[in-house]
Amino acid sequence: MIHKFVEGIEKTIALSSIVLSSNIQKYFGPALETVYLKGHLLIIDSSILEISIFATESRNTLSIDKYRLHYMNSTGQMLFRYDNAPHHPEIDSYPHHKHTSDKIMPSSMPSLKDILNEISAIIIGR
After folding, report:
1. What is the DSSP string of the chain?
2. For the segment 40-90, what is each residue's pLDDT rounded down to a tens digit?
């Protein structure tokens, strides 16, 4: 299950028309029951999506224990970030939330495909 999850991430990156290059490291636990993915994607407009995901497999169920999906423009200014750091208990979807340049809002963890679609919409909207 962990390997299918990683393969799905890799396939999404490979099939994306907006990703110029990727540098994602994979760190598997000793019994292959955990994986930590960390790295970044270079987008066609020179913006960057940083990815950090820690996933666990237990009893044929995959859970995402921690994640941070941080999108920034070519100068390093944050455009949005999804994460589940437990620092906004006032948010209805706690600990899941989305940061934008001016607010924090409820969210769930989006798929990588959803994030790349959101980035595409931003690029097209410029």
Report:
1. -HHHHHHHHHHHHHH-SSEEEEEEEEEE-TTSSEEEEEEEEEETTS-EEEEEEEEEEETTEEEEEEEEEEEE-TTS-EEEEEE--S--TTSTTTT-EEEESS-EEE--PPPHHHHHHHHHHHHHH-
2. 999 999 999 999 999 999 988 999 999 999 999 999 999 999 999 999 999
